[in-house]
Amino acid sequence: RDERLRKLLIEKDKGKAGEHGGIGTPATRDSIIATLFDRGFLIEKGKNIVSSPQARGFYAALPDQAKFPDMTAIWHEQQRAIAEGKSDAMTFVRGLADYVGREVARVKEQGLAIAIDAPPCPSCSKPLRRIKGSKGYFWSCTGYADGCKFTANDKAGKSELVKAPAPVPSQQHKCQACGAGLVRRPSAKKKGAFWWSCSAYPGCKQTYFDNKGQ
Fold first, then answer.
1. What pLDDT score was predicted for residue 106?
2. Which of 81, 108, 153, 194 could form a disulfide bond with 160, CB atoms 3.0-4.6 angstroms apart?
3. Is residue 193 scored above 90 in pLDDT?
Protein backbone atom coordinates (compact mmCIF):
# COMPACT_ATOMS: atom_id res chain seq x y z
CA ARG A 1 0.00 0.00 0.00
CA ASP A 2 3.02 2.26 0.53
CA GLU A 3 4.76 3.27 -2.72
CA ARG A 4 8.20 3.28 -1.07
CA LEU A 5 7.66 -0.23 0.29
CA ARG A 6 6.36 -1.43 -3.09
CA LYS A 7 9.61 -0.28 -4.70
CA LEU A 8 11.61 -2.05 -1.99
CA LEU A 9 9.82 -5.34 -2.69
CA ILE A 10 10.51 -5.06 -6.43
CA GLU A 11 14.12 -4.07 -5.78
CA LYS A 12 14.52 -7.14 -3.50
CA ASP A 13 13.99 -9.44 -6.48
CA LYS A 14 15.83 -7.38 -9.08
CA GLY A 15 17.75 -9.69 -11.41
CA LYS A 16 16.04 -12.86 -10.11
CA ALA A 17 14.32 -14.83 -12.88
CA GLY A 18 10.60 -15.27 -12.28
CA GLU A 19 10.56 -13.06 -9.17
CA HIS A 20 8.62 -9.81 -9.11
CA GLY A 21 8.49 -8.52 -5.55
CA GLY A 22 6.74 -11.49 -3.98
CA ILE A 23 6.99 -12.87 -0.46
CA GLY A 24 9.54 -15.55 0.35
CA THR A 25 11.93 -17.31 -2.03
CA PRO A 26 11.66 -20.41 -4.24
CA ALA A 27 13.65 -22.27 -1.56
CA THR A 28 11.18 -21.45 1.22
CA ARG A 29 7.90 -21.27 -0.69
CA ASP A 30 7.49 -25.05 -1.15
CA SER A 31 7.80 -25.76 2.58
CA ILE A 32 5.47 -22.86 3.43
CA ILE A 33 2.78 -24.16 1.07
CA ALA A 34 3.20 -27.72 2.40
CA THR A 35 2.75 -26.45 5.96
CA LEU A 36 -0.39 -24.53 4.96
CA PHE A 37 -1.83 -27.77 3.54
CA ASP A 38 -0.84 -29.72 6.67
CA ARG A 39 -2.62 -27.22 8.90
CA GLY A 40 -5.75 -27.16 6.78
CA PHE A 41 -5.29 -23.57 5.58
CA LEU A 42 -5.08 -24.61 1.89
CA ILE A 43 -7.26 -27.21 0.17
CA GLU A 44 -7.58 -28.59 -3.35
CA LYS A 45 -10.79 -27.73 -5.16
CA GLY A 46 -10.85 -29.41 -8.55
CA LYS A 47 -7.67 -28.27 -10.32
CA ASN A 48 -7.29 -25.23 -8.10
CA ILE A 49 -5.73 -24.58 -4.70
CA VAL A 50 -7.92 -22.36 -2.51
CA SER A 51 -7.93 -21.10 1.05
CA SER A 52 -10.11 -22.94 3.56
CA PRO A 53 -12.80 -21.26 5.73
CA GLN A 54 -10.42 -21.86 8.65
CA ALA A 55 -7.67 -19.89 6.87
CA ARG A 56 -9.99 -17.01 5.99
CA GLY A 57 -11.20 -16.80 9.58
CA PHE A 58 -7.62 -16.76 10.84
CA TYR A 59 -6.64 -14.08 8.30
CA ALA A 60 -9.56 -11.86 9.31
CA ALA A 61 -8.40 -12.00 12.95
CA LEU A 62 -4.81 -10.93 12.18
CA PRO A 63 -3.56 -7.35 12.68
CA ASP A 64 -3.00 -5.32 9.51
CA GLN A 65 0.79 -5.55 9.88
CA ALA A 66 0.57 -9.31 9.33
CA LYS A 67 -1.87 -9.12 6.39
CA PHE A 68 0.11 -7.04 3.91
CA PRO A 69 3.55 -7.55 2.31
CA ASP A 70 4.78 -4.26 3.82
CA MET A 71 6.50 -6.17 6.62
CA THR A 72 8.56 -8.16 4.09
CA ALA A 73 9.79 -4.91 2.54
CA ILE A 74 10.65 -3.45 5.94
CA TRP A 75 12.57 -6.59 6.90
CA HIS A 76 14.43 -6.50 3.59
CA GLU A 77 15.43 -2.90 4.25
CA GLN A 78 16.63 -3.76 7.75
CA GLN A 79 18.57 -6.81 6.52
CA ARG A 80 20.21 -4.70 3.84
CA ALA A 81 21.29 -2.23 6.54
CA ILE A 82 22.89 -5.15 8.42
CA ALA A 83 24.74 -6.28 5.27
CA GLU A 84 26.02 -2.71 4.75
CA GLY A 85 27.21 -2.48 8.36
CA LYS A 86 24.69 0.25 9.26
CA SER A 87 22.88 -2.00 11.75
CA ASP A 88 23.39 -5.34 13.48
CA ALA A 89 21.53 -8.64 13.65
CA MET A 90 20.68 -8.39 17.36
CA THR A 91 18.90 -5.07 16.83
CA PHE A 92 16.80 -6.75 14.11
CA VAL A 93 16.03 -9.78 16.33
CA ARG A 94 15.12 -7.58 19.31
CA GLY A 95 12.74 -5.61 17.11
CA LEU A 96 10.99 -8.84 16.05
CA ALA A 97 10.81 -10.08 19.65
CA ASP A 98 9.32 -6.77 20.81
CA TYR A 99 6.70 -6.85 18.06
CA VAL A 100 5.71 -10.46 18.78
CA GLY A 101 5.62 -9.72 22.52
CA ARG A 102 3.25 -6.78 22.01
CA GLU A 103 0.94 -8.86 19.81
CA VAL A 104 0.87 -11.77 22.29
CA ALA A 105 0.04 -9.34 25.11
CA ARG A 106 -2.73 -7.78 22.99
CA VAL A 107 -4.29 -11.16 22.22
CA LYS A 108 -4.12 -12.19 25.89
CA GLU A 109 -5.94 -9.01 26.86
CA GLN A 110 -8.42 -8.68 24.00
CA GLY A 111 -8.73 -12.26 22.76
CA LEU A 112 -8.68 -13.40 19.14
CA ALA A 113 -12.03 -13.51 17.38
CA ILE A 114 -11.66 -16.47 15.02
CA ALA A 115 -14.89 -17.82 13.60
CA ILE A 116 -15.04 -21.61 13.94
CA ASP A 117 -16.59 -23.11 10.83
CA ALA A 118 -16.38 -26.76 11.80
CA PRO A 119 -19.22 -29.28 11.70
CA PRO A 120 -20.37 -30.68 15.05
CA CYS A 121 -19.64 -34.29 15.92
CA PRO A 122 -22.83 -36.35 15.41
CA SER A 123 -21.84 -38.46 18.43
CA CYS A 124 -21.09 -35.84 21.12
CA SER A 125 -21.75 -32.43 19.43
CA LYS A 126 -18.20 -31.10 19.91
CA PRO A 127 -16.49 -29.52 16.84
CA LEU A 128 -14.70 -31.77 14.37
CA ARG A 129 -11.19 -30.94 13.17
CA ARG A 130 -9.36 -31.81 9.93
CA ILE A 131 -6.21 -33.90 10.44
CA LYS A 132 -3.58 -35.25 8.05
CA GLY A 133 -2.99 -38.96 8.62
CA SER A 134 -0.70 -41.48 6.94
CA LYS A 135 -3.32 -42.12 4.23
CA GLY A 136 -4.45 -38.53 3.72
CA TYR A 137 -6.78 -36.10 5.47
CA PHE A 138 -9.68 -37.11 7.69
CA TRP A 139 -11.87 -35.50 10.35
CA SER A 140 -11.70 -36.34 14.04
CA CYS A 141 -13.72 -35.21 17.03
CA THR A 142 -12.07 -32.64 19.32
CA GLY A 143 -13.57 -34.63 22.17
CA TYR A 144 -11.13 -37.50 21.52
CA ALA A 145 -9.43 -37.04 24.92
CA ASP A 146 -12.85 -37.31 26.56
CA GLY A 147 -13.51 -40.66 24.93
CA CYS A 148 -15.25 -39.79 21.65
CA LYS A 149 -13.64 -41.78 18.82
CA PHE A 150 -15.80 -40.45 15.95
CA THR A 151 -14.00 -39.93 12.62
CA ALA A 152 -15.16 -39.05 9.10
CA ASN A 153 -13.61 -39.11 5.64
CA ASP A 154 -12.45 -35.87 4.01
CA LYS A 155 -13.74 -34.69 0.66
CA ALA A 156 -12.25 -31.48 -0.77
CA GLY A 157 -11.65 -30.06 2.69
CA LYS A 158 -15.10 -30.92 4.05
CA SER A 159 -16.17 -33.85 6.20
CA GLU A 160 -18.28 -36.57 4.61
CA LEU A 161 -21.00 -36.76 7.19
CA VAL A 162 -24.20 -38.70 6.78
CA LYS A 163 -26.74 -36.59 8.60
CA ALA A 164 -28.24 -38.72 11.33
CA PRO A 165 -31.89 -38.21 12.22
CA ALA A 166 -32.40 -36.09 15.30
CA PRO A 167 -32.92 -38.26 18.40
CA VAL A 168 -36.49 -38.34 19.71
CA PRO A 169 -36.73 -37.33 23.38
CA SER A 170 -38.33 -39.91 25.64
CA GLN A 171 -41.89 -39.23 26.74
CA GLN A 172 -41.46 -41.57 29.69
CA HIS A 173 -38.13 -40.41 31.10
CA LYS A 174 -37.89 -36.73 32.03
CA CYS A 175 -34.99 -34.58 33.21
CA GLN A 176 -35.20 -34.06 36.95
CA ALA A 177 -33.68 -30.59 36.60
CA CYS A 178 -35.83 -29.01 33.87
CA GLY A 179 -38.55 -31.53 32.97
CA ALA A 180 -37.51 -31.96 29.31
CA GLY A 181 -37.46 -35.43 27.75
CA LEU A 182 -34.25 -37.44 28.01
CA VAL A 183 -32.31 -38.92 25.06
CA ARG A 184 -30.60 -42.32 25.30
CA ARG A 185 -27.14 -42.22 23.72
CA PRO A 186 -24.43 -44.86 23.05
CA SER A 187 -21.31 -44.57 25.19
CA ALA A 188 -18.12 -43.48 23.41
CA LYS A 189 -16.02 -45.20 26.08
CA LYS A 190 -17.62 -48.64 26.41
CA LYS A 191 -19.06 -50.74 23.61
CA GLY A 192 -22.67 -51.74 24.21
CA ALA A 193 -23.12 -49.23 27.04
CA PHE A 194 -25.51 -46.27 27.05
CA TRP A 195 -26.22 -43.09 28.98
CA TRP A 196 -28.96 -40.46 29.08
CA SER A 197 -28.71 -36.73 28.38
CA CYS A 198 -31.24 -33.92 28.57
CA SER A 199 -32.81 -33.00 25.21
CA ALA A 200 -32.65 -29.33 26.26
CA TYR A 201 -28.84 -29.34 25.86
CA PRO A 202 -26.93 -26.99 25.81
CA GLY A 203 -29.41 -25.09 28.00
CA CYS A 204 -29.49 -28.04 30.39
CA LYS A 205 -26.42 -30.26 30.79
CA GLN A 206 -27.89 -32.94 33.06
CA THR A 207 -26.82 -36.54 32.35
CA TYR A 208 -27.93 -39.86 33.85
CA PHE A 209 -26.68 -43.46 34.05
CA ASP A 210 -28.48 -46.09 31.99
CA ASN A 211 -29.90 -49.21 33.63
CA LYS A 212 -31.06 -51.57 30.89
CA GLY A 213 -32.91 -48.85 29.01
CA GLN A 214 -34.20 -47.12 32.11
1. 84
2. 153
3. no
